[in-house]
Amino acid sequence: MPVVDTEQLTSAKTALRQVLTACGGNTKDKAVIAAIDNLHQLNPTKAPARSKKLLDDQWLLISAPNFPGGEQLADGKYAYTLGRLAFNMFQPLKLKLVIDQVLQPVLLLEDGEQQSHDIVIEFTTVDESFPQIRGIVRNQGVCYPVTDTMMQVQFTGGILAPHPSTNLQDWQAIFAEQSQPSQQNLQEKLMSNFLKLIFGLVPPQGINPETQEILFTMKRAPKGRLEILYLDEELRITRGQKGTVLVCQRN
Predict the structure, then answer these.
(1) Cβ proximity of 106 and 54 under 8 Å
(2) Domain ranges of the chain
(3) What is the per-residue pLDDT for 33?
(4) Fewest CB within 10 A of the end CB: N or C in the chain?
(5) Given this model, what pLDDT does residue 16 score?
(6) Can you tell me the distance from the alpha carbon of 227 to that of 28, in angstroms, rounded to the nearest whole number?
């Protein structure tokens, strides 16, 4: 890989930040795509997927959290249902949330081969049917390199937890009931049973009375690929299997 001029690299990263700001963080914008492609060509890290020391950190998403199935609101923020953010595991599935920020702690695990691939989503409810509270969805996962630029990713479960500022009585009023909704139609029930069988899904068993957390596990979780387009001491840019591009900075 050719030696990259430091000024050129700094200029390219500044340009990316500027276009991200100008278009609300949209990584599908043509100017953002061009800026990311430019950085991809300048990537100073030869084998980013195998660079454990550079990958290990708490990463903060600075591009828009425009995951599949979301809705961009008038203020530029993105809204999702709780079901969409957490494999349809937590009730109420249709609770509407706005994403406040997304963090990704990447840490080397005990086996020395895998790293954590948790996606931590901090949210505020915006559903008129419920009190407005803040919470955290943590989709738990692991990853490991399969090529110099590609990671294999596997999700293993998830946790729904209150934000420290949340009124716990309001939290319990919304999330105390975690049984499958009786109003599920036949197709939804069949899909739910299919996912449990194929992925070994163990649904939530209620709220932990001490932590107020709700959790589920996946014993045979689906695997996906994640390409690392750029990595250095400051930024990480990835592209998921479905084409979603995320830009993160060290937090």
Answers:
(1) no
(2) 1-44, 50-250
(3) 97
(4) N
(5) 98
(6) 17
